[in-house]
Structures are given as structure tokens and as C-alpha cells.
Design goal:
It is globular, with a radius of gyration of 15 Å. The mean pLDDT is about 85. The protein is α/β, with parallel strands linked by helices. It is built from four helices and seven strands; from the N terminus they run H-E-E-E-E-E-H-E-H-H-E. The protein has a four-stranded mixed sheet with strand order 1-2-4-5, with helices on both faces. A three-stranded parallel sheet has the order 6-3-7. This is HET-domain-containing protein. It comes from Macroventuria anomochaeta.
């Protein structure tokens, strides 16, 4: 399994960066897991800005410990996620079809404290508006 530095070599500076959310609207990001792996064997996803009226599924899972991240592709850009989330996405690509998912580690810009605080305050409402909740134990 490649580590982050070897993925950096393969993908250069092509790291995923979140586009800003409109915090004045009821907007959020949603992920779709693509059914096929990349040519490098990575899980591929696309990310979309949406409003909570868009049907989506929430994922509840344990993040697990840091230090054992795995590479995935979001909109053809590299993103490192924890092993448990990568395992879920690997299964989801064949089991969930092409539905929208809300996954906090991907849909919230974890590097932006203001956005993260705003979205965390809304999580109860985000979960309440979901059409389904998946609990992933790994």
C-alpha cells in the first residue's frame, strides 16, 4: 500500500481543495462514490454543493486513529482519509449505487475552522434531514 508521500509523487500538487460553502443559505456538500476504482486502484468520488432538500444519506462512523491514512480521489484530486472511511467507501461504491452521501470528514472543510464550527453546529439538522442513516462499524 502506498503512503502519502508516494501518492504525492504520483499526483504532484493535485490535492483536493474545498470550494467555499454559502453559509447564508442552507447549503452543504454531498459526495457520490463512483462505481469504478481509478487506474491506481483508488476509490473515486465526486463532490457537489447542494441544499438540504436534495435527498441524501448520512454516514455515522468512527474516524479511527490518525497516522494510517489512505488516499482517495475527490473530483480527480487526492485526499487522504482515515482507514475506516476508505473501507466504507470501497464497499459503498458497489453497494449503494450512485446516491448522495453526507460524510463529515469529506463534506466539511476540516482545515477551515470557521466553516467546520458552522457545519458542526448544523450537524443535528443535517442528520435529521437525511433520508437514511448508515452506521459503519468497520
Amino acid at each position: 500500500m502506498r503512503n502519502e508521500s508516494s501518492w504525492n509523487h504520483a499526483y504532484g500538487t493535485s490535492h483536493f481543495r474545498h470550494a467555499p460553502l454559502d453559509q447564508k443559505k442552507d447549503s452543504l456538500r454531498l459526495v457520490k462514490v463512483l462505481p469504478d476504482l481509478s487506474t491506481d486502484g483508488l476509490v473515486e468520488c465526486s463532490i457537489h454543493h447542494a441544499v438540504k432538500s436534495t435527498p441524501y444519506i448520512c454516514l455515522s462512523y468512527t474516524w479511527g486513529s490518525s497516522g494510517n491514512e489512505r488516499a482517495i480521489l475527490i473530483s480527480r484530486k487526492l485526499l487522504m482519509v482515515r482507514r475506516n472511511l476508505e473501507a466504507f467507501l470501497y464497499v459503498a461504491r458497489t453497494q449503494l449505487g450512485y446516491c448522495f452521501l453526507w460524510i463529515d470528514a469529506i463534506c466539511i472543510n476540516q482545515a477551515n475552522a470557521a466553516e467546520r464550527d458552522h457545519q458542526v453546529q448544523r450537524m443535528g439538522n443535517i442528520f435529521a434531514k437525511a433520508k437514511m442513516l448508515i452506521t459503519w462499524l468497520g
